[in-house]
Write a structure and sequence with these properties.
Elements: H1 4-8, H2 17-22, H3 26-36, E1 59-62, E2 72-73, E3 78-79, E4 87-98, H4 108-113, E5 115-127, E6 133-134, E7 142-150, E8 160-165, E9 168-174, H5 176-190, E10 199-202, E11 214-215, E12 220-225, E13 229-235
Parallel strand pairs: 1-10, 2-7, 3-13
Antiparallel strand pairs: 4-5, 4-10, 4-11, 5-6, 5-7, 8-9, 8-12, 12-13
Length: about 240
């Protein structure tokens, strides 16, 4: 982990990921990449750094989302077990973060050019003892991370995603159709209202045939995608 503002050494360089996304012109990213290639980058490594959520999006939308405010958890954060839950239904997702405002996107190329990058999302639905869905409690977070991979470094159509629970591989599959659907959702939303830089769109939960979505207290969940890395969270034990 390197403190980019210190490394770049320019007073106008963004000091947060949110600011970087909203002022992400080519010169800003080019300056960051050039600085990371300099020898002095090693001297500015932050010792003992702990990964936080890589970005706090101005909004996190998805086709199945409900209005409201959700707490954001980062890599390694514990997810509390909701009181009264019978089990949790795991919803692994990939999310696209917008780098600029867009309205009335008319082509797939225009939509792709509006995307700053991609990250992973671990979300959870709550089921009662009978398996019926219940509303998400306010304290149940959505986990985001471990990093934002810029759009020029990834082809989301070809990425493979792996889900592991307690070290066992539960599912592995390609994002091809999911990534196309995600960009279509961004385009559809842009035709209804103006979208802003910093907004994020999460795909519908990845639906691998072999994935058992039921999660129990104490489980450690790992969601991994090529290039983005591993988003790891543990579910708290009851009591």
């Amino acid at each position: 982990m390197v403190d980019l503002p210190d490394l770049v050494g320019h007073p106008a360089f963004p000091t947060s990921m949110e600011a970087l996304v909203s002022s992400n012109g080519g010169t800003v990213l080019d300056a960051a990449r050039a600085a990371l290639e300099r020898d002095e980058a090693a001297a500015l490594v932050v010792k003992g750094a702990r990964l936080l959520p890589p970005i706090l999006p101005t909004s996190l939308r998805s086709r199945d989302s409900a209005e409201g405010v959700r707490r954001v958890a980062g890599p390694g954060d514990e997810v509390p077990w909701p009181t009264g839950a019978g089990w949790l239904e795991y919803e692994p997702r990939i999310a696209a973060i917008l780098r600029r405002g867009v309205r009335g996107a008319g082509s797939s190329r225009e939509i792709e050019e509006a995307v700053f990058g991609y990250t992973l999302v671990s979300d959870f639905a709550v089921r009662d003892g009978s398996g019926d869905p219940t509303p998400r409690p306010d304290g149940l977070p959505v986990a985001i991370g471990p990093c934002v991979l810029t759009a020029d470094e990834i082809d989301p159509q070809t990425v493979f995603v792996t889900v592991r629970v307690d070290g066992d591989e539960w599912a592995k599959g390609n994002l091809n159709g999911t990534a196309r659907d995600l960009l279509d959702e961004v385009g559809a939303a842009s035709r209804l209202e103006a979208l802003e830089a910093g907004e994020a769109f999460a795909a519908s939960p990845l639906s691998f045939p072999q994935l058992d979505h039921r999660i129990w207290p104490g489980a450690e969940i790992e969601l991994e995608a090529e290039g983005i890395g591993v988003l790891r969270n543990r579910i708290a034990r009851q009591g």
